Automatic annotation (TrEMBL):
Assembly: Homotrimer.
Family listed: Belongs to the KHG/KDPG aldolase family.
Keywords assigned by UniProt, alphabetized: Carbohydrate metabolism, Lyase
Protein name: Bifunctional 4-hydroxy-2-oxoglutarate aldolase/2-dehydro-3-deoxy-phosphogluconate aldolase
Pfam families reported for this sequence: Aldolase
InterPro entries from the UniProt entry: Aldlse_KDPG_KHG (IPR000887), Aldolase_TIM (IPR013785)
Pathway in which the depicted protein is active: Carbohydrate acid metabolism
GO molecular function terms listed in the Swiss-Prot or TrEMBL record: lyase activity
């Protein structure tokens, strides 16, 4: 398995940082790592995303945290952020040019999909896994039903995933989950209470690990 993908598997949870303030980024990434979340995605709509990725990549050893770009809608954004140090690229939608660009530079790519047809199309185009988005509206049963005929395609539900439903998604066949709002409390970071983020990360990874052991 590709090393970046195996590190995402190890983390079990990909933290989605949307609009993270530059002065909180390293503290949040460190707090997440402390709690066992070692895969972090900074969304491309975050101001200065390439600089943030460069900053966070330079602040950790290669094996400590794996950094990706989220909400990538075009190959230009994929390339720019890969050059800044991103190791994986996630989209809310399916863009074959983004997958092609990632493969050109040896990076992991994950298109957003909702249907079996989109999942197969993304995988055939060379994606490493698919992000089932938005996950909450379809729920864990949708992942289970898709994994029936498409067991070979690794699926990561994202969008509305929290401690209340993460175990159900993993038991339905998800290899990892993505989470933003339910995992990263920017207000806590603003108050300097980074241990709250570590606690949330610890709880999330515990839930995923237990669900894997049960599944
Ligand atoms: O556009 C993307 O690449 C995304 O990742 C979409 C959402 O920001 C995530 O799905 C996080 O959603 P919440 O966990 O519900 O906060």
């Amino acid at each position: 398995m590709n090393e970046t993908l195996s590190r995402i598997v190890d983390s079990g949870v990909v933290a989605v940082l949307r609009g993270v303030p530059a002065d909180q980024l390293i503290g949040i990434a460190e707090a997440l790592r402390e709690g066992g979340v070692t895969a972090v995605e900074i969304t491309a709509d975050t101001p200065g995303v390439a600089d943030l990725i460069e900053d966070v990549s330079g602040s950790f050893d290669d094996d400590e945290v794996v950094i990706g770009t989220g909400t990538v809608l075009d190959s230009e954004t994929a390339r720019t952020t890969l050059m800044a140090g991103a190791e994986f690229v996630v989209s809310p939608s399916l863009h074959e040019d983004v997958i092609e660009t990632c493969n050109r530079y040896g990076a992991v790519s994950a298109p957003g999909v909702m249907t079996p047809t989109e999942a197969v199309r993304g995988y055939e185009a060379g994606a490493d896994f698919v992000k089932v988005f938005p996950a909450k509206t379809v729920g864990p049963a949708h992942i289970g039903a898709m994994k029936g005929p498409l067991g070979q395609i690794p699926m990561m539900p994202t969008g509305g995933v929290g401690p209340d439903n993460a175990a159900d998604f993993v038991e339905a066949g998800a290899f990892a989950v993505g989470a933003g709002g339910a995992l990263v409390d920017y207000d806590a970071a603003e108050r300097g209470e980074y241990e709250e983020i570590t606690e949330a990360a610890r709880e999330f990874t515990r839930i995923v690990e237990e669900a894997r052991a049960d599944g």
